[in-house]
User: What shape does this take?
Amino acid sequence: MSSHIPLFPLNTVLFPGGRLSLRIFEARYVDMVRRCMRESAGFGVVLIREGVEAGGPAQTFAVGTLARIIDFDQLDQGLLGITAVGERRFHVVGREVQKDGLNTGTVEWLTDRDAAEPLPDFTPYAHLLEHLLPELGDLYAGVTPRFDDAAWVVARLIEILPLPLADKQLCLELDDPAKRLELLRSIVKITARPQDGEEPGPASLS
Assistant: This one.
C-alpha cells in the first residue's frame, strides 16, 4: 500500500520512536507544517545525499521516516519551532516538486522483521543510553524509556551518537533489528561493563 506525503530533506536521520526538533523559516516548509497540523498528518524526513537543507534543491536517499508534529512554538524573527516524533519507515518510489518548491513523494511503508533468533546481549548499550538520555535536555524528557527493548535502545543510540550519517542511514535501511545491533557493535565499542550503581564504561567509535 502506498501513500503520498510531503518530504523534508535534512542532514539528519530519524528513526521510529525518535524525536526531532526543527526551526523552520522557509515559506514552503512553514506552509507544510501548518497543513500537517491542520490535517493531523505527517511529513517524511529523508537524509540529503547531495545538496543543502535550505534554499536550493537537494537529492535524498530513498528510505526515510514519517514524522508527526507533537509540539510547536512561534519563535522570534518569524521562525517556527516544532518537535516531531518518528513513526513509520518508508521507501520513496516516486517524487514530485510542487510549484512552491516543496518536495513530495509516493512512498511504500516498511516494517521491521522480527529477529530470527534472540538478540545478543545489549545490556552495555542499554546502560550507555540510560546514562546519555538525561544529558539531551528536554527533547527526550517526555519519552518513556524502554531499556529492555533492544530495537529501541539501538535506534536511540544510532540517533544521538556522533556517527557518520552514512552509517545511520544504513542502519535505518536495515529491516532486521539484529543486523542493526551488529552494525552498532562494529562501530561503537564499550570498553567496560558497569556494575550495579556504576556509570557505564567509556564508549569509543571505530
